[in-house]
Design goal:
By secondary structure, the chain is an alpha+beta fold. The protein is about 40% helix and about 25% strand. The chain contains four helices and three strands; from the N terminus they run H-H-E-E-H-E-H. Strands 1-2-3 form a three-stranded mixed β-sheet. The termini are far apart.
Length: about 130
């Protein structure tokens, strides 16, 4: 039989405090920050017509500072500028809150505008 340790000897030792700078660091991968940014952009644009893909994001992180680029598609007509401002705001807010990073810039690139189905019907378009 092997003896079972009660752990009593471990409690008798004094605890050593390791300075914060020597404990290590937490590093959040760029792709994790990109997923946070993509989800934030998706939430910011709201309801979109069927067939529009989710926003995608690419991120470069350097020393707790994230530079973000969002590619998205929007329904048209809409206030493109307002949608882009909302995306920027939401991405900065979410990346700062969830990853603890500064976000000095968010580049929003609108890849495609999709004409509203009602307008296509009026104009006689099918695609």
């Amino acid at each position: 039989m092997t003896p079972v340790s009660t752990g009593a000897g471990e409690l008798d030792r004094p605890l050593t405090v390791v300075p914060a700078g020597e404990r290590g660091a937490t590093r959040i991968a760029d792709r994790v920050v990109a997923k946070i940014a993509s989800q934030a952009a998706h939430e910011a644009v709201g309801t979109l017509p069927a067939g529009i893909g989710r926003p995608s994001a690419s991120v470069v992180v350097h020393r707790e500072v994230a530079h973000v680029r969002i590619q998205l598609e929007l329904g048209y007509p809409c206030d493109i500028g307002a949608r882009c401002r909302e995306v920027r705001h939401r991405v900065v807010e979410q990346v700062s809150a969830l990853a603890g990073m500064q976000v000095p810039e968010v580049v929003v690139q609108v890849e495609r505008l999709h004409l509203d189905a009602a307008l296509r019907a009026v104009e006689g378009r099918t695609q």
